[in-house]
Each structure stands twice: as C-alpha cells, then as structure tokens.
Amino acid sequence: MDKERGEAVLELTREILSKMADVDIRTVDISELTDLRDIKIDTSQPVEKKLESFAKQTRNVYVNRIGDYVVKVKFQESGSTIDDKMAEYLRRLSEIYL
Fold first, then answer.
1. Alpha-carbon dihedral 56, 59, 62, 65, rounded to 10 degrees
2. How many domains does the chain have?
3. Which end of the chain offers a freer environment for a tag, N or C, measured as fewer CB atoms within 10 Å?
C-alpha cells in the first residue's frame, strides 16, 4: 500500500511475470481469466499509468479472455508497433476485397 496516496502498490517481479507468461492457453481455466471487455483505461494518462492500470485490473498481464476466447499477448522491445501491425492488417483486408 502506498501510504502517501492510499493506493495498492503493484509488485510484478521478473519471476511473477515469467510465471504469467508461461501459462499454457490450452490448459488454462477460462473462468479464472479477466475479460478484456471489463478493463477500463483512462486513455488521457501517460503510457506508464495506462500499463499500471491494466496490470491492476487483470490477474495475468499476458493471458486474458474476450468472451469465450482465450487471448495471450507477447510484448516485444523492438520491431513493428501495434500501429504498424494494424496498418498491415487493414492493407491485407483491402487487398482481399478489391
């Protein structure tokens, strides 16, 4: 607990993050996962605050669900951004329908 602000302090050690990332989506109990549709993020906040808010609202930052579907994400330090990937996806969709 952050005594100055009265907030819970989130401590995600490398060990905890590693265990979260190692979850096998084929064997995970979907009822134990956080539905991403229930997570609320204040988009006006800086990235650090948005990530902290996301982590506080989920049981696992890597494995969640959307309805009946299990979703596992992987974070990368370099390479294409989410915007790049979305543009590529939309470009591919437009090629299919032309």
1. -110
2. 1
3. C
